[in-house]
Amino acid sequence: MKTAGKDGLQENSAIARLRDRLRKLYHGRTPAAFRFQLVAVVIDLAIIAFFIATPVLQDKPSFLWLDYSAAALVAADLVARLLASNDMLRLMKQPTSWVDVFILLTLLMPTAFANLAFLRILRLWSLSRSGSLWRHLEMRGLRPWREASHAVINLLTFLFVITGFVYTFFFRTGAGLENYIDALYFTVATVTTTGFGDIVLPGMAGKLTAIVTMIIGISLFVRLAQAIFRPAKVFFPCPQCGLQRHEPDAVHCKACGHLLNIPDEGN
User: Fold this and answer.
1) Four-way CATH pick for 143-232: 1.10.287.70, 3.30.420.10, 1.10.357.10, 2.60.370.10
2) pTM for this prediction
3) How does pLDDT run across 147-170, given as a tens digit for each residue?
4) FRET partner for 110 with CA separation of 20 to 30 A, picked from 101, 138, 145, 153?
């Protein structure tokens, strides 16, 4: 009994050390943590590139190997983030975790979820909410462009989601790069309301798809314009009320009046 208890303590201690190590890698600011976070971002971008290219690659002999490799990476990242979290339940309730779980299911069962594979590009939106990504950008003096970058990523995510949807449900009969480019061309022409009319979607479903694409696309363009042209604000969560955006020279939070200590860009 004593041996069993001792083994249990050692196991708990090993898990605690692992969680502490992962917490430092995912959330730390040491050189080793930054290197790890940068590698994680690069791997994420490679996975996203694979998701974008999926319609072209899905008939290739190596597709399943790439698919399951991506599944292993997504699963490892999800488990590691859970272990690195101080509150696993709270993390699993976040939309980014739901996106990761859904993407993992589509990767593990590519045939069953073939018609929903275009939603994997939501991983790009999930990456844009990653704290490690913005820590690297802020180190390079790009903090003022954070909101504009969010708007660009939201627009790109929407474009590729709609392109995947249009390709899957309207252009799938002629699989390949040419048809995927046609779907992307239709999406961009519709979002920008250019409406050349040389490529149109058939039937009522096609018209409804075009309507939804135009409405949401215009909204995202307006959001992007606002992020670029309105006065820049800094991201600094108020310790009292949590308000994140403030004027660069703000001394007090405009929501609750709490005293702020916003660091200079050079610090």
Assistant:
1) 1.10.287.70
2) 0.71
3) 777 778 888 888 888 988 888 888
4) 153
